[in-house]
Amino acid sequence: MAVGIFDSGLGGLTVWQAVRERMPDLPIHYLADSAHAPYGVRDADDIHTLTKAAVERLWASGCDLVVLACNTASAAALRRMQEAGVPEGKRVLGVFVPLIEALTERDWGDNSPPREVEVKNVALFATPATVSSRAFQRELAFRAVGVDVEAQACGGVVDAIEDGDMILAEALVRSHVDALKRKMPHPQAAILGCTHYPLVESVFQDALGADVQVFSQPALVAASLADYLDRRPEMRGAGETNMFLTTGDAKRVSDRATQFLRRQITFEAA
Q: Considering the entire predicted model, what is its pTM?
């Protein structure tokens, strides 16, 4: 029985890989909206329309539960989709909450009032659309008080990774970290608020310094998903095989995915 994972491009494969390592027997349907990537430079209405269509495609493939392994989609579309209502028996989850729970040292379902936490200065690296949405700050405010968040919109990083230009991606990461440090010289923690960024996590860590704790999403999301499915096993859906779907050029996307994960990944047309 399958669970859906959606991203605008290939960054969500970092989440896919972590979920596979955590739950190797769980069939996953992965959908990359490569024809419209990147989402990070689009407006909220456009992101919502594209995300809704992608989620509905995964529901149709037999996935009752879809994880938005895309911070931009989670920031700009998730709440709107949930407030509008989803079909009975279907669910869509984002990737912000597991990250914030880890940062604030809260367990899933802890709805107690916001409280002081150890980390006071947090750097957020994300796409322009995620930064402008202020979704991270909004979710954090539900759980913690007294935390200063400085956000850095990391233009160009996703494009470079999707194009396979890791030299450019690394240079852009260092430039964005330098820009962040001019605004917040001594962050205690850094949030990699894009599922593409784990592919250059070591560059972020090196540029930030060893004393900065870097929070990256894949393992956190995988652990949260495993816990969710333990509590809600009926949400595993009806699909029984693994699938990789894309709205883009299937061969090109397959080649890039294989390069990223260093294993053969074959996409087909969505």
A: 0.93
